[in-house]
Every structure is written in structure tokens, then in C-alpha cells.
Amino acid sequence: MCGIIGYIGKGEAFPVLVSGLNKLEYRGYDSAGIAVNVDADADADANEDELNLQKYVGKLSEIKFEAVDGSIGIAHTRWASHGKVTKENAHPHLDCRNEIAVVHNGIIENYKELKERLIDKGHSFRSETDSETIAHLIEDFVSDGFSFDDAFVNALRMLEGCYTVLAVRKGENRIAGARKGSRSLCIGLSEGTEGPGLFPSSDVLAFLEWADKVIYLKSGDVFFADTDLNLKIYNLIEDRIVERPIDTVKCDAEEVKKGEYEHFMLKEISEQDETLLRALQQDKNTVTEICEEMRRAVGTFFIGCGSSYHACLAGSYLFSEIAKVHVNTALASEFENYEDFLTENTLVLAISQSGETADVLDAVNAAKRKGSRVVGMVNRDGSILTRDCDQLLMMNSGPEFCVLSTKTYTSQVVLMAMLAYAYAGRCEEGLEKIRSLYLDIYNLTSRTVREHVHELAEMLYKRKNIYLIGRGLQYTTALEAALKIKEVSYIHAEAFAGGELKHGSLALIEDGTPCIVFVSSNNRSKILSNAEEVKSRGGYIIGVSSEREEVFDFWVKVPDAGELNPIIQIIPMQVLAYELALLRGLDPDKPRNLAKCVTIT
Ligand code: M6R
């Protein structure tokens, strides 16, 4: 779960690397580093060619890299998986002679065995990471007389697992890179006069301000690039030189800025009126075809992780309610338990904001092996899932930087609702209903609502536990709201289906225990009696509903949107999570221990 950016070309690598790392910090943020090839011929201050390495522990905002001249460089922002958060474990990693630098995202499954072999041959390791093995493997082949390119390919052939990797060598006019499995790698292309160059990276966001063209590499692709912008791509699996299409980058550089907002989280929460409309921009034929596929399928699964899973769950309730059809839902990380039931007639709808969540990609691959059809619902353009599925619905939410899903969650529920209406043959009516939420969402993200929710946050931010209840669709909102509160404020928040309390969890309620209750007109009396059960044990009831109810101690007013409540009711809860984080002095954009894109299983 790391971010990688490199540069090679006619310009300076340093500013590209630093700016790229900042854009990639959402992928990992416990340490970072850069390696720049300093060319003695080009740099008057350098007596000889040098590999300038700088590594630091901490968030990028706290790191000050020292500017260095050079037109070839690689950089990495890390989210620890193998080895603690230390400077030694930060990337880039070097070989024994400090000549080869490597950045890596992924897992080298056989690294222990490779490392032992390399140690026996006299290599000494400085870090606990699996990634360092790659630098020593390349070194080993170079010492055996192989060229840098061949050494790189030979090293890759020895790796088991999945990876994105970039490597440079002192004095060598080259960057080598590769991708395998569920790790992404693309190469930005710029012909600009300031510094035409190639920008290999895990994400287009890293080079948006420099390059407007991009090549997405496929699994097994290895590339070699030089400062004259010669680019060679070779596929290890097909064992041949390959050509990959050049695409236009579809992302606006303005979207990656915070603008007037203090945090991306608040910006992204506030964008939801617009992203609601953007999610509806779908090709009608695609929507109809997906509904047809669902009708033909003998069994449909909605799968995803985290918030995307909650959207799956909301989707299954929406299909029951609107389309009167049953859909299975499964956590993508648990999907292997269902694989035996997959056939050529099964349809899998995989939801993922990033399109690169490893659990989702693994589940999709398993489904494809069984011959099942796969529909992807994705936000990140060019991500692996966009290329791995049979049909695609894009969320069109624009980049989401905050680790918490906010606007992409509501877009996912919007798309689910849209599909359910289309399946029921009520497409136009559905679109109209969803569109009409625009103003409500705008109001729910206004300053007035934020101030009201801030009052609630003032009451809650020192609490150890918060409970949330809902029934039916509102239960899925309770789950999603609990996840938001947990991940950004670190307060324990737990959601229950209202009817389940009496089966055990009611024992948790004490004097003053806060309980957030999501009310909908169609199950009002049942959920209110669940709220009464909590209140009579001393609970403090926070109602999220269109009407003030007697049982409420605090009321968050939201319009009643019927079956579309999940799109509306979650918004003040996102705001609540944000306010709780601020009151607890936490950075809402970068919660501890988490990363935006979870590329490990
Ligand atoms: O990119 P994905 O939608 O596949 O990500 C899935 C989860 O990791 C993600 O929703 C996560 O739970 C968020 N941090 C929730 O806010």
C-alpha cells in the first residue's frame, strides 16, 4: 500500500518527485524517500556520478527533502506492511554498493528464501523489508556480467508475488520498471518545453500537472526508458516486446487541490450534490445491459470491502424494495467461501472506489476463472478493475483523497438505486427521484447543518462508545456511519439492526450511552420502540429523521427520502465524523494505520 513516482527526461526530477509524492500520500503515509541519479557531466558541483538517496520517517508535510539536480529519479511513500516504520525500512532500497536504487509496492512472497541465498553469497541487508531483496538480486546479476536491463528482467523472473517496481542505477541513463498482479503502474508522457519526460507512477494523480498522456501497463509488463524518451515495453508472460495504447489523462488538475477547504474530507463531503448528478451520467445502454445480465444470471453477487461493501448491502435492500429481486452480498475478503457456487451463469458486481483493492481483485479473478460475468463499479479511471471486468459503471466522483470514502459512497448508493429502478422498468422515474435530492444534499452540507452537528460532536467527542441503530436500509446507513466515526475519530462506534438489540447488545447501554437512531417513515414505529428500549436503560438518543420525536434527546433533521434515505442520512454523519476528528485533534484526511488503497489481502 504505497505510492510510487519516477521521472526521466530533459527536465529536473526533484520537483516532479516531491510534488508526485504529495499527490500519492493518500496511498501510504508513514515514511518516504527519493533517489536521484546525479550526473557529473551535467552537474558542475558533482565530482563524480552519484546516487543521491534521501529517506525520512513521518508524513510528507513534515519532511523536507534537500533539492538535488538530476534528470532521473524515483520516489516512494510507504505504508508499512513488511517491517516497522523506520528510516531503514523506507524506500528506495539500495544494493550493497549503493549503486542500484529500487522502490517497490506489493509483496514478494518468496523473499525470505531469496534473501537467505543472497546473504550466503555475501550480500548484506539493511532493512527488514521484502523490497530490498530486489536491489540485491539486480546487483547479483550485474556482478555476473549482465547489463542493467537484463539484470532487472532476471531479477523479476525470480520474484513470486505481485509488484510495482522501479529501479535506477548510478551512471546509467535509464529507469527500469515493472508491474505484476494486482499492483498498478502507468507512465505519464509529457512533451512540454519545460521538461519533456516520462513519469512512471502507481497513479496518474502523481503527474497530472506535468503530463496529459498516459500509458497503462498490463500485468507482466516491464519497461525501460531513457532521457531521450525512448520507451521499450516487454511482457514477461508473453515473452515479447509489446505496444500499449497512449490514452489522454482524464482528470482535472484543479480537482486534486483542497481549494478553500481546510481538509479534503470536508471538500469531498461538500461536493456530494455535484457528484450525485455526475454518478447519474451513465450510458443508458450499459445500464440496460447490466439489468439484462442480472435477469439472465442464476445468482448475482454484490461484492466489495469497507464502505463499498456497505453500498453493496444498501444495494441488496434497494433491489428487494424497488425491483423485488434478491441479490447476494459478500465481503470481497470473504468471497473465497462462495467460490464453489460460482458458475458461468453467475453475475458478480464488484464495487471499488480505487479499483485496486486486492481483496476485490482476487475475488474478481476467482469469478473469472469460473467463467462468471463480472461488472465493475469503479471511481478511479484506468485502475486495474476498470480493465478486468466485462462491463463497467464509472462513479464519476472525481479523485477522492481523504482516506475515508464520503462522496464515492453516496455515488455507489446512487448507482445501486439507479440500477434497481432500471431493473424494475422505472428508469426515468428513478432518475428524477434521485436528481431531486440535489438541493437536500446541498443543504445538508451547509454551514448551518455543520454548526448544528458541531454541537453534537462537542457532546460526543470524549465518549468511549457510540452505538447506532437502524432497520432495513437505515441499518446499512448505521453500519456506514459507525465506520466513518471509528476510522477518523478512533471512538468505538458500533451499529446494530434495531431489532437485534434485545438479543444481547442492549446489555451495553448505561446511563448516558449515546445511541444514534436512523428513522424512516416506513419503519418509524418499530425503530422508535427500539429507541425507547435504549432510552429506558439510560441511553441518550440522537435521532436522524425528518420529524422530531419525543424519544429524541438531540435531533438531526434530514428530509425523508423513502428508499433513497441512505443517500441523505449518511451526510450529517460524515460531518459528525469530521467534527469529532477535529475536536480530538486528529487529521481527518489521514487516519492512523489506514491507507486509501488497500493493495494487500
Ligand atoms: O477502494 P475501495 O472502494 O475498494 O476500498 C474499500 C475500502 O477499503 C474502503 O471503502 C474503506 O473502508 C474506506 N476507508 C472507508 O471510508
Characterize the structure shown.
The chain has 601 residues and is α/β, with parallel strands linked by helices. Helix content is 34%, strand content 23%. The structure holds 5-amino-5-deoxy-1-O-phosphono-D-mannitol (M6R). 5-amino-5-deoxy-1-O-phosphono-D-mannitol is lined by residues 305-308, 352-354, 357, 360, 403-405, 483, 487, 598.
Which structural category fits the helices and strands? alpha/beta
Poorly predicted sequence stretches spanning 5 or more consecutive residues: none
The residue fraction in helices comes out at: 25-40%
Radius of gyration, in angstroms, nearest whole number? 25 Å
Distance between the termini: 11 Å
**Order of strands in the sheet with most strands:** 3-2-4-1-10-9-11-15
Name of the CATH architecture of the largest domain: 4-Layer Sandwich
Largest sheet: 8 strands, antiparallel
Give the CATH H-level superfamily of the largest domain: Aminohydrolase, N-terminal nucleophile (Ntn) domain
Total strand segments: 25
Summed up, the helix count is: 17
Give a brief outline of the structure.
With 601 residues, this protein is an alpha/beta fold.
